[in-house]
From TrEMBL:
The keyword Cytoplasm applies. The lineage of its organism: Bacteria, Bacillati, Actinomycetota, Actinomycetes, Micromonosporales. This is Sarcosine oxidase subunit beta. Coiled coil: none annotated. Keywords: Cytoplasm, FAD, Flavoprotein, FMN, Nucleotide-binding, Oxidoreductase. Residues 24-68 form the Rhodanese domain. It is found in: Cytoplasm. Its EC number is 1.5.3.24. One of its GO terms (biological process) is tetrahydrofolate metabolic process.
Amino acid sequence: MAGPVVVHPERLWRNPEPAAAYDVIVVGGGGHGLATAYYLAKNHGITNVAVLEKGWLAGGNMARNTTIIRSNYLWDESAGIYEHSLKLWEGLEQELDYPILFSQRGVLNLAHSLQDVRDSVRRVHANRLNGIDAEWLDPQQVREVCPIINISPDVRYPVHGATYQPRAGIAKHDHVAWAYARAADALGVDLIQDCEVTGLQVSGGRVTGVHTTRGTIGAGRVALSAAGHTSVVARMAGIDLPLQSHPLQALVSELLEPVHPTVVMSNAVHVYVSQAHKGELVMGAGIDTWNGYGQRGAFHIIERQMAAALELFPFFARAHVLRTWGGIVDVTPDASPIVGLSPVDGLFLNCGWGTGGFKATPGVGWCYAHTVAHGEPHPLNAPFSLERFVTGALVDEHGAAAVAH
C-alpha cells in the first residue's frame, strides 16, 4: 500500500506581498481556488491573478475530506462535470509534474435493500449511457473485489450487491493542493496567505475590488471559491445564497498492513472506508444535522460511525482510532453545486459541492476558469447556475451523493 518516498523541493511557491490590483482575484486558497487560478493562467493566458486565503493554502476542506474520487452520479449534468474531472485526474500527475498519488482502486456503492438494488441498477444503466464505467455486482462479486467485507445475510444491513466503478479511487489531498499551487505560481499567479476578505468593493453594479486584512486590492473580476464561507462573502455584496453548512466528521485508524484494496461506500449504513497510502483506514460518516462551521469531531458521532463500520467489517474491531476531525459540507436544496455568474457584474460563484468537492477539483477548476475568463458559463457548469432555484430546473442528486445531505 505504501508508495515511494516523495522528495519535496525546499520551496514550492513564492510568498509575495499583495499588489495594488489584479485582473482576477480568486477568494479561497483550497483545491478549487488553486485549480481555477492554474487553469486561468494555463488555458486562458490570464496570469495577473491572485489567490487570497485567510489562513494557509489548502487548510480548509481540502485538508479535511476522505479523498474519494468517482464520477458515477445519476443525472447527465452531474455525470458530465464529474467525468470530465475524472479524466483530468487520470493525467494530472504528469501534467503538474508532481506526485499526487492518484490510485484507481475502484469504488463500491453498497445496496442493502430491494429499493437500493433498483436504484443502483438504474444508476449503472444511466452511467453507461453517459460513457462512464459502471457495473452491477452481486454479493459474491462484491466479496471478490473486497475480501474483508461481511456479506452474511444475517446482519442488520445485509449486502444485496453494489455498483462498482473500476476507474474511481483516491489521491493524496495535500499533494494535490501543493501541485496546483506550485504550477500556478510558476505561471505567475500570486498566492497570498493570511489575507482574509472583509468586504467587496462594488460600484455601479460591478465588483471593482476586495477589502482585506492586508488592505484594499483592486480587481477586474472576483471569483468566490470558499466553500461554505462563499455565502458569507457573497452577502457582503447583498447576495443571499441558498446554502447551508454542516459539519462532516471523519477519522483515521492506526497504521495497518494492506487489508482494504478498494473504496467501500454505504449510504444506508452511513459510512465510507478506504485505506490510505501509508496504511491508515480512512472513514467518513454522514453530516451532522445542525448548521455550523465547527471542525472538531464529537464522540457520539464517532461511536455511531464505528458501529456502522463494524457491521460491514468485523475485522476492524481490533483497530485503534488515531485521530478524528470535522470538515464543512456546504449544501444546496438540490444537493448540487452553484457554479457561474452572480447578480453583480464581474463577481462569480463556486460553492455548494456537498461531499463532492474534492473529486471535482480538476473539473470545476477547468470549467470555472472558463466561466471567469469568458464571462459566461462553460457548457459543463451551465446547468449549475444560481438561477435554477428560480426557474425550477434543479439537478437533484440527493440519491447519488453517497451520504445523506
